[in-house]
Sequence to fold (150 residues):
Amino acid sequence: MEIDAYCTKCKIILTHVVAAMVGKRPKKVECLTCHGQHVYRASEPGSRAKAKAEKDSDGSKEKAPKKTPAKKRTKTKRGVEKEKELWRATLDKKDLASAKPYNMADSYEVDDIINHNKFGMGIVTKVITAKKMEVHFEAGRKCMVYNFSQ
Ligand SMILES: [Zn+2]
Fold:
């Protein structure tokens, strides 16, 4: 009886001949390539660990950032340029005369143009909460307070 099994000598899955059975399972097999006899293994010894490792890396997304910093740096640099382009392009389409001076007590809406005394012109890109919004400045997106009453 021929069977595909992992050859411990050839280190790959090869056709083997069953040399000994235990119940319905092959116990010992003979490799048709090297003619060595060994205990039957259905798959490579590493394949199980590999599958587990893959599963682990999949499930541990919190671990991923540990690996990314170097990668992230170049990505972020490119991202910053892209963000700047986006910021510029968005402002180009806006009427800067409508820019509101930033005041944390004022209320703003998405797409409002804000003139911040430190960060310059910014676009309200997101309303995070009733008192927090994301504003896209040339320097990047910042979380700003608005609707703030003391
Ligand atoms: Zn072999």
Observations:
- DSSP finds three helices and nine strands in the chain.
